[in-house]
Amino acid sequence: MKKMYFIAIYPPQEMIEEIKEFKRDLAIHYGNSKALKNEAHITLFPPFSREREMENDIHTAFQKINTEITPFEIELNGFGSFPNPKNPVLFVQPENNPHLTELYHNVKQQFNFGTYSFHPHITVGYRDLTWENYLKAWEKYASKEYKTKFLVEKILLLRHDGHWVPIAEKKLTK
User: Fold this and answer.
1) Is 41 strand, coil or helix?
2) For residues 65 and 61, what is the distance between their CA atoms, to the nearest angstrom?
3) PANTHER family, per this entry (predicted)?
């Protein structure tokens, strides 16, 4: 049986709750409820499908990721978007961060299948967000202030079992 997996950074729980408020706003005012299903995170490697029997191999590759990086802060500053009419996305925008980019490249060394461009973000609205509602929401969120930061101390490997469940973590150590 196939399962979905992905690798991500999760902010602290109180920040996940803050970001959930933006998701609720989009659900209530812009008909976008799908984003409420997922906790706030930054994707390091997007969801991929594998046979459940291969999970040990996924764990092995995950443990080989070089995380000899000093824990670092990510600053979130305002909102951004991917204005694709077929699949618009609204997100919380992290500042450029060389440590985050380094971590992504280290993940990519072990998980090097598929093409994936790295645009770190924390999704607020997507999937069932229509183009018309995206345009209305973007009018509000383009200039909306949201500034905070959090310490990245670990990365997570998650599996989809009806919802995303962390199945392994790897701490940053330097």
Assistant:
1) coil
2) 7
3) PHOSPHOESTERASE SAOUHSC_00951-RELATED (PTHR40037:SF1), PHOSPHOESTERASE YJCG-RELATED (PTHR40037)
> Above 80 in pLDDT, residue 160?
yes
Task: Give the list of residues 6+ apart from residue 156 with CB closer than 8 angstroms, or none.
Answer: 7, 8, 9, 10, 166, 168, 169
Q: What is the pLDDT of residues 39-48, one digit of tens each?
A: 999 999 999 9
Q: Where are the domains of the chain?
A: 2-171
* Contact by Cβ (8 Å): 44, 103: yes
The SS3 assignment for 58 reads helix
Check pLDDT > 90 for residue 115.
no
CA distance 53 to 32: 35
CATH architecture of 2-171: Alpha-Beta Complex (3.90)
Q: Secondary structure of the chain: what % helix, strand, coil (to 5)?
A: 35, 35, 30
- Looking at residue 37, its pLDDT comes to 86
Would residue 138 be called left, alpha or beta, if left means φ above 0 and alpha means ψ between -120 and 50 degrees?
alpha
C-alpha to C-alpha distances, 119 to 33, 112, 115, 162, nearest whole angstrom: 23, 17, 13, 26
In which element (H, E) is residue 56 found?
Answer: helix 55-64
Specify the DSSP element, H or E, that contains 123.
strand 122-125
What is the model's pLDDT at position 41? 96
Comparing CA positions, the residue from 174, 172, 16 lying closest to residue 107 is: 172
